[in-house]
Amino acid sequence: MEDLEEMLLEEFDNYSYAVEYYPPESELEEKAPLGAVHWISMGLCCFAFVLGVPGNALVIWFTGFKWKKTVATLWFLNLAIADFIFVLFLPLYISYMAMNFHWPFGVWLCKVNSFIAQLNMFASVFFLTVISLDRYVHLVHPVLSHRHHTQKNTLRVIIFVWILASLLGGPSLYFRDTLELSNYTLCYNNFHENENDLRLMRHHALTWVKFIVGYLIPLTTMIVCYSCLIFQVKRRSIVVSSKHFWTVVAVVTAFLICWTPYHLFSIWELMVHHNNYFSPVLRSGIPLSMSLAFLNSCVNPILYVLMSKKFQVRVRASVSEILKYTLWEVSCSGTVSEQLRNSETKNPCLMETAQ
Fold it and tell me: Which residue intervals define the domain G-protein coupled receptors family 1 profile in the entry (predicted)?
């Protein structure tokens, strides 16, 4: 066990395994205080949690329970579900950072928390991509959209996205592990305890899969879809509001801002993990880039739904309906004697109750 700890300490000095920050041995012993960058990272995570829980819950409530089920509402509902599940687990990661990257929650929560993060990353990105494809086909190829734009086909795509995201996030359930080391409990990717080449190979493979499947392909698809959409709108004079155009720009921009640093730091780490000169930059940059990626979970409902004029109208109508029903109940409440007295004047509340 001591040999394993020494090996891991040496490895953690040079290699942070892409999604975690592992303090070097001196910091593990002294429990050095968190720096300004890590406080900023925690602040971003707290902001994502505070804004993401009510924002995604609002989208789930209206698209899942209040509005008619359409293809568009199904996309937004599942996107919000993916983000909502993830932000519910954010307090674990916030606590992890606040305790100077000490994990006291046990091995199973280490696995589950990491799996939820990976599941959200892939599911959220995939649903953003599907929404981009759906909007392009719906506006540019209306005949094809009318033929295949059904709830049945939509449900098939949704099930496929969740299965694919689960499979891609599944390695977290297998590789994540905990290790007690110098009064710290680390939650890390235990790719292999003894064979360094196998450990590096697995790390490289998973990092490149995340980059290509979870970033490069979706980003390329969104850019191509929206570029073709803008070109077709101008060429064929398709009526699209300026608000829709700026929403598209905001979506692509938010995706770039939130996810690009995370994937760049992950790839950079693969290239320079043997160079101690870059260790401080990686130890600060990786948590910060992760926090930026987490923000996408609270930005999604704002950009895709809350900026929609139709959504705003529907929300106001739904809130108005709720307030109207509440006021109706209040106006109809009272003592039995008051109700009997009012019945002589044909109180509409009693008439409604009697019916």
Answer: 55-304
Residue bearing tokens 């509409």: 348
Going from the C-alpha of 136 to that of each of 38, 55, 148, 202, the distances in angstroms are 40, 26, 14, 37
The Cα–Cα gap between 259 and 294 comes to: 9
List Cβ neighbours of 138 (8 Å cut-off, separation of 6 or more): 145, 149
What is the per-residue pLDDT across 239-279, written as a single tens digit (0 to 9) for each?
Answer: 555 556 666 677 778 888 899 999 988 888 887 765 555 66
DSSP secondary structure letters along 170-213:
THHHHHEEEEEETTEEEEEE-S-SS-HHHHHHHHHHHHHHHHII
Least reliable range by pLDDT among 70-84, 268-282, 296-310, 322-336: 322-336
Within a 13 Å sphere around the CA of 336, how many CA atoms are in the beta-carbon half?
Answer: 0
Q: What is the pLDDT of residue 91?
A: 92
Total count of residues recorded for the chain: 355
Tokens of 19: 């999604």
Residue 140: Cβ-neighbour burial (10 angstroms; 0-12, 13-18, 19+): middle
DSSP state of 344: T
Residue 58 neighbours by CB under 8 Å, 6+ apart = 301, 315
∠ CA 85-89-91 to the nearest 5 degrees?
145
Inter-CA distances, 262 with 56, 257, 276, 301, Å = 23, 9, 20, 21
Residues 6+ apart with CB under 8 A from 143: none
